[in-house]
Amino acid sequence: MSHSDICIAGAGLIGLSLALELHHRGISVTVLDRGTPLSESSTAAAGMLAAADPDNPPQLRPISDLSIQLYPAFLDRIHSLSGQRVALQTHTTLQALPLHVTNAGNILTPQDLAHLLPSLTPGDHRFILLNENSLDPRQLAPALLAAVRATSIDLRLNTTIHSVESHAGSVTIQTSNGPLEASQFVDCTGCWAATAPPSAVVPRKGQMLSVTLPPELLLRLVVRTPSIYIVPRTIDPAVTPAIIGATVEDAGFDKTVHASAIAHLRSQASALIPSLSTAPERETWAGLRPTTPDRLPLLGTFPNQPHHYFATGHYRNGILLAPATAHVTAQLLLGETPSVDLSAFSPSRLVSLAQ
Ligand SMILES: Cc1cc2nc3c(=O)[nH]c(=O)nc-3n(C[C@H](O)[C@H](O)[C@H](O)COP(=O)(O)OP(=O)(O)OC[C@H]3O[C@@H](n4cnc5c(N)ncnc54)[C@H](O)[C@@H]3O)c2cc1C
User: Fold this and answer.
1) Class of the CATH-defined domain 91-132+202-290
2) What residue's CA is closest to ligand 1, atom 51?
3) 298 and 292 in contact (C-beta within 8 Å)?
4) How far is Cα 240 from Cα 125, in angstroms, rounded to an integer?
5) Residue among 75, 183, 195 nearest 137 (CA)
6) Which distant-in-sequence residues (6+ apart) come within 8 Å of 334 by Cβ?
7) Could you state, in order of their start, the residue ranges of all structural domains in the chain?
8) What top-level class would CATH report for the domain 1-87+136-201+292-355?
9) Are 200 and 347 in contact (CB under 8 A)?
10) Ligand 1 first shell, C-beta below 6 A
């Protein structure tokens, strides 16, 4: 039976970011994935670092702000290990307010909007401007993987975790390639939550499309309403794609793309920016967001399973929260006080689901 200090299940953005953080702190890490790394939710995402989205649960704000603060160092570390620099694609978001928000300051005037985005059709929406970045998860993924591969992190693919047994000072992990022993284990298996109680984390499907923007549409910011977002990829001046997303569906683990859903997304986007109705389609896809009943992540341990941690359930904000999740989970694993209060994310809150 091989042994490592810490065994991580799941080579998505959360698992690999944590592996990199632990490796940086001198810990020996093994990462197991049942398939290929970064091929699930982490590369289906739009890539908004939407810390100030008014639709987020308010308990997310401190850990979101921490993540925003940690992002430059996270990208620098990836760059120094991989040689690949992940660029920020946008720096501002035009955010439409949900109907129940009545007291937000700084609502943009029609003149402000005409100046920012002349082609916008605001309709009944009221907009504010957020200082918010986005990046391309499909640029982040290969850079992160190259960074991990430049270290001594033991990344084992095609290895499925079946179960984990906690002992006094260690865990035994049963995998499709035999048992493994580690001092501590972290479940980062996204919506599969391989070792969590049933229903603690479930998939929530998101369908998306990307289009090539017409050259006359100079879209350099994200446009987001409670039901749709348009996220341009701006760093290649020759061609500007934009992501239009996303559905939010309870469809189990189904990732089928439906033409009707894609057409609905496009018509919602075109209602905001009419020239999107004829923008050539590039690609369509669907991904599965790891979702808990209260839309908050699962960070920490369940009672009576002291060496068995979870870092999953990031729902719509896993790209945003990856650096902070890696940081605070490493702190928990090493017995340090986390930089932000994690009580809202404690698996204990879901303990009734386990009974
Ligand atoms: C359409 C869509 C749009 C999104 N947009 C954004 C956005 O704009 N901004 C943002 O911050 N977030 C966004 N998200 C959310 C974000 O993508 C997720 O929260 C995040 O990627 C979750 O990462 P993860 O590493 O936990 O999961 P995943 O990337 O799904 O990785 C889980 C890994 O676990 C592995 N695994 C599963 N079961 C087992 C097992 N039994 N044994 C071993 N390995 C296993 C899988 O193979 C996989 O590699 C979006 C998500 C979707 C679907």
Assistant:
1) alpha beta
2) 45
3) yes
4) 26
5) 75
6) 25, 27
7) 1-87+136-201+292-355, 91-132+202-290
8) alpha beta
9) yes
10) 9-15, 32-35, 40-42, 44-48, 50, 160-161, 188-190, 192, 194, 206, 208, 245-246, 287-290, 312, 314-320
pLDDT 10s digits, 30-87? 999 999 999 999 999 999 999 999 999 999 999 999 999 999 999 999 999 999 999 9
CA dist 197 → 61, 190, 200, 288, 354 (Å): 27, 13, 6, 18, 5
What amino acid occupies position 143?
Answer: A
Tokens describing residue 7:
């065994």
Structure tokens at 147: 């960074």
3 state DSSP class of 239:
coil
What is d(CA 293, CA 296) in angstroms, rounded to the nearest whole number? 8
pTM: 0.97
The Cα-based distances of 203 to 59, 114, 163, 262, 316 in angstroms read 21, 39, 20, 19, 11
Distance in Å, CA 66 to ligand 1 centroid: 20
315 CA from centroid of ligand 1 (Å): 8
Instruction: Copy the structure tokens of residue 68.
Output: 């925003």
